[in-house]
Amino acid sequence: MNAPPVASELGLVLCHACGLACDNRDHPTQCPRCAAPLHERKPESLTRTWAYLIAALVFYIPANLLPVMNTKLFGAGDDSTIMSGVLEFWAHGSWDIALIIFIASIAVPATKFVALGLLLVTVQRGSTWAQRQRSKLFRFVELIGYWSMLDVIVVALVAALVKFQALGDIEPRLGILFFGMVVVFTMLAAMSFDPRLIWQPPNGKEPAHE
Amino acid sequence: MSEDSNHSAAQPARPAVQTRRFSVSLVWIVPIVAVLVGISLVVHNWLQEGPSIQVTFKTGQGLEANKTAVKYRNVVIGQVSEVELSQDQKSVTATIKLVKQAENFTRQDSLFWVVRPRIGAGGVTGIDTLFSGDFIGADAGQSDTRAKTFTGLETPPPITYGEPGKRFNLHASDLGSLGVGSPVYYRKIQVGQVVSYALDANGKGVNVEVFVHAPNDAFVTDNTRFWNASGVDVEVGANGFALRTESLSSLMVGGVAFRAPDYSPDDQPAAEDKTFELFDDRPAALAPPAGKAQYLALRFDQSLRGLKVGAPVEFLGMEFGRVVAINLDFDAKTRTFPVNVGIVIYPQRLGQAHTKMLKVLNHNPDDEQAGVRLMGTFIDNGLRAQARSGNLLTGQLYIALDFYPKAPKVTFDPTARPITIPTIPSSLEQLQEQFQAMVEKINKLPIERIAGNLDANLVELRKALKQFNGKTLPGIEGTLQDMSTTLKSANATLADDSPQREQLSQTLDDLGRMTRSMRELADYLKRNPESLLRGRPDNAPADALQPSSRQ
After folding, report:
1. Sheet strands (E) in B173-205
2. Helices and strands (H and E) in chain B: how many
3. Which segments of A66-173 does DSSP mark as H helices, in order?
4. Phi and psi (nearest 5°) for B138?
5. What number is the ipTM of this complex?
6. Would the CB atoms of A59 and B35 count as touching at under 8 Å?
7. Are B70 and B79 in contact (CB under 8 A)?
8. Please, what are the averages of pLDDT over each run of 10 residues along chain B (551 residues)?
9. In total, how many domains does chain A have?
10. Do B28 and A51 touch (CB under 8 A)?
11. Domain match, A84 and A29 both
12. Are residues A36 and A48 in the same domain?
């Protein structure tokens, strides 16, 4: 191969914490500089990613079905789910806000599921298809991950601000907890995924996988 | 190397490594927990899932899917999950998801209605829904059978939530101004309300259902009378004007009042759903029980202007019936227009008189023939009907039954139904006739002759008076003048300073002096009797004369 040698060929391993290139020939367990655990690849990367992704998917269902917020106006309570909020904004003409909420709360998590699922499947199959794009996709997933927290923050903020007793009152509902879990688990999934596996040679065996 | 030796020695350890307890990564706990949480949610939801029912309303006004709540005592017990037009497009079907605890609301006689702001008889209700939007009110039923579909009420039921109290049925000839929610008064305090009303099955009356709240429902007793206290009751009858009202609010929304007669022995609280008669007004309600009604026919040969249907019928001044029909008739024989008057009487209203009479005559009020015979006896004894003027101001007439032993005899037809009672002309009419007779007599008087005689007499009288004036009067005048002079002179004689009086007093004084002298003389003579012969001695002391005068 004309390509430059990879770290494993040179017996080197990069410390995840401080970035020090460590000698991996005698399989040290700690970074000599910062004492962080050393792994050639993230440990159990695919398993963890799968686990977190599945957990997130499970939570995604109640997050969308359960109400996230209860708006009480003049004594009349009204539970709203994420989708009903989007539809309500859309129906009232605020399509921009509806779009933002839709993208942040529904489209982004869904995209993440699809993207991570795609990455996991391709990596497991050792596919060499569109490796560069997949790599970009992963970075994109990492980037947009926390934007999904927008909804949680909005609910937290509004619930804290709108406390007018009888006139109006907004309270968070169980759904937002699940939604927060979804975001957290998708972020964990993205974190535990090792993008280097994308470039793993098809015949290469994933290390630290038992 | 020790490692090698260990390796061989640790040969049995290899399975231990391979049979590691966790052959799968611990991270799988996370999705498992997530699934468990999800399942628990589903199970919880499934356990909490209440029954789903369908309620049909006439309109879907105020009903919104996933928004409109179902409330009982203002607590949410469910939510409308779907609102759609019914298949025949005549109503709206709202699917309601009830919570688990609201199982009772699937009883067949449960009620559902839409709470909206309403201005009704009982005031304004549902103001809060102005802000919060309409909601569905519910009231659990008592039935044992369950149902899935209900018909929503258009108006909220007046009595909800199993309120303690009793329902009673009232039967009236018409509804008056009553409505659902009209108050029920007891001694002018509102104790209940009208719950519903409906026409009789045969359409000949109205059934009104009222609800009296506990504990005042105990005041509804078996003897209680209900009457319509609607609005202002202005009555122009033979007894004059009467104006009554129960309360200001009943003026507007009508009302029912009830009360037991003052004398109600052995009165027990009435049972639920007892039927009472709803009287038109208070006097009618509190009147003694009417008892059996008896229809009588009267035939008058006079104008009955002022006699109205409903006018009282009195017997010797006691009101015991009323007029029910007035019809003009044509008598082919006499070619006149008599007036047929139908009256209904309640003999029991005569009270004591009636019961005593029954006892004495050994009369059974249910025996019709005997009743007719009794009436015949009365008529033979002079029982007559008469239309009398009850009120000169309004000209109202009433029917009076009275005994006129001198009335001309009539034949009584015991087979005629209704029994016909002969009539005699009204007293006013009699008065008119008598007055007319008098006027006729006056007309017949020889007034002109009387006037002529009277004129001659007056001329004579004038002559006599002239004589009297011319001759007799001057004589009397002279006499009077003489008398006056006499009196004047007499007056002068008796006056204080008149010479006659002066002389008189002088004379009296002289007389006094003379008497004294006579006494002195007598004394002197007593002491000196010799002086009668010798005369008075010259040396006689002066005081010898005095002592006797001083004694």
Report:
1. 183-186, 189-199
2. 14, 25
3. 82-91, 95-101, 108-124, 131-145, 149-161
4. -135, 150
5. 0.78
6. no
7. yes
8. 45 42 73 89 84 87 82 85 87 88 84 80 68 80 84 77 82 82 85 86 87 86 82 64 66 78 77 84 72 81 82 84 87 86 83 78 73 81 82 77 82 79 76 84 86 90 87 84 89 77 89 93 87 73 52 44
9. 2
10. yes
11. no
12. no
- What range defines the domain where residue A18 resides? 1-40
Q: How far apart are CA B173 and CA B227, in angstroms?
A: 12
Say which CATH number the domain at A174 has.
Answer: 1.20.140
Closest CA–CA distance from residue A2 to any residue of chain B (Å): 37
Give, as one character, the DSSP assignment of residue A200.
Answer: S
Q: What does the angle CA B453 – CA B459 – CA B460 come to, to the nearest 5 degrees?
A: 95
Q: Do A151 and A131 share a domain, yes or no?
A: yes
The answer to whether the CB atoms of A74 and B28 lie below 8 A apart is no
Distance of CA B262 to the CA centre of its chain: 14
Integer Cα distance of A144 and A109 in angstroms: 9
Phi–psi pair at B497, nearest 5 degrees: -95, 20
Residue A106, in any domain of the structure: yes
AA identity, residue B458: L
Q: Which of B186, B157, B185, B173 is nearest to B250 (CA)?
A: B185
Note whether B30 contacts A84, CB cutoff 8 Å.
no
Q: What's the gap in Å between the CA of B63 and the closest CA on chain A?
A: 14
- A60 with A35, same domain? no
Secondary structure of B308-328 in HEC code, one letter for each residue: CCCCEEEECCEEEEEEEEEEE
Rounded to a whole number of angstroms, the CA Rg of chain B reads 58
CB B211, CB B197: distance < 8 Å: no
Average pLDDT value for residue range A116-140: 86
Q: Are residues A17 and A62 in the same domain?
A: no
What is the rounded CA–CA span in Å between residue B57 and residue B112?
A: 9
Per-residue tokens: B274: 């007892």
- CA–CA–CA angle B336, B337, B341 (5° rounding): 135
Is A209 inside a domain boundary? no
CB B57 within 8 A of CB B114: yes
**H/E stretch holding B493:** helix B473-493
Model pTM above 0.90: no
Cα-based angle B480, B481, B483 (whole degrees, multiple of 5): 65
B25, B33, B66 member nearest A47 (Cβ): B25
Polymer length of chain A: 210
pLDDT at B9: 46
Question: In angstroms, what CA-CA distances link B243 with B127, B189, B355, B392?
Answer: 36, 20, 34, 19
Q: Are residues A12 and A69 in the same domain?
A: no
Q: What are phi and psi of B399, to 5 degrees?
A: -100, 130
Phi, psi of B219 (to 5 degrees): -80, -10
